[in-house]
Amino acid sequence: MLLTEKKHDFSKSYPVGENFFYRCLNCGMTIPSQTQNSMGCTCGNLFIDTSYARISVDDLQKIQLLEKQVIPPEEAETLLVNLINRLIKEENQHKKLIALAKSKAPGYPFVKGILYEISKSSIVPTSEEKKIMDDLYFLYA
Fold first, then answer.
1. 0.70 exceeded by the pTM?
2. Residue 69, SS3?
3. For residue 39, what are the β-bridge partners?
4. Which residues have a Cβ under 8 Å from the Cβ of 3 and sit 6 or more positions away?
């Protein structure tokens, strides 16, 4: 996985940094720990308030601390191609997205666009595919 769970005692602190993310286990939403704007998960269990530099959690048992892992571009390409093959059935769109996924452009600039196109698919991703899509998005954010 691109974001890996990091065990942490939340009763002592909430780590913040560009490589740390929080996932709400109630709704599954992943939020960067370091953000310019206040944001919270969809169910309201987790909220990051940038105005007051604080993190609010209703149920500590229902959050995970995640750490971003660097993965080789080939692994990201494989993940994207697998998602495209399963979720995109329209032939022209499929060919276009596969070509973008296999492009070796520096910094992989098309990842967000590919994920956006996949998210518009009429085929609903599995929960595991959704986690991979979220992880890829944050990895290349």
1. no
2. coil
3. 48
4. 21, 23, 30, 66, 67, 68, 69, 134, 135, 138, 139
Q: For the stretch 1-26, what's the b/e string if a residue is b when 16 or more beta carbons lie within 10 angstroms of its beta carbon?
A: ebbeeeeeeeeeebbeeebbbbbbeb
* pLDDT (tens digit per residue) in 80-137: 899 999 999 889 989 988 888 887 664 555 788 888 888 888 888 888 888 888 888 8
- Write down the residue that tokens 């973008």 correspond to: 100
> Which runs of E-coded beta strand occur in the chain?
3-5, 20-24, 30-32, 39-40, 46-49, 54-57, 63-68
Q: Where are the domains of the chain?
A: 3-68, 73-139
> What's the one-letter identity of residue 122?
S
DSSP 3-state assignment of 64?
A: strand
17-28 pLDDT per residue, tens: 888 999 999 998
Measured CA to CA, the distance from residue 33 to residue 85 in angstroms comes to: 32
**Which residue type does 1 have?**
M
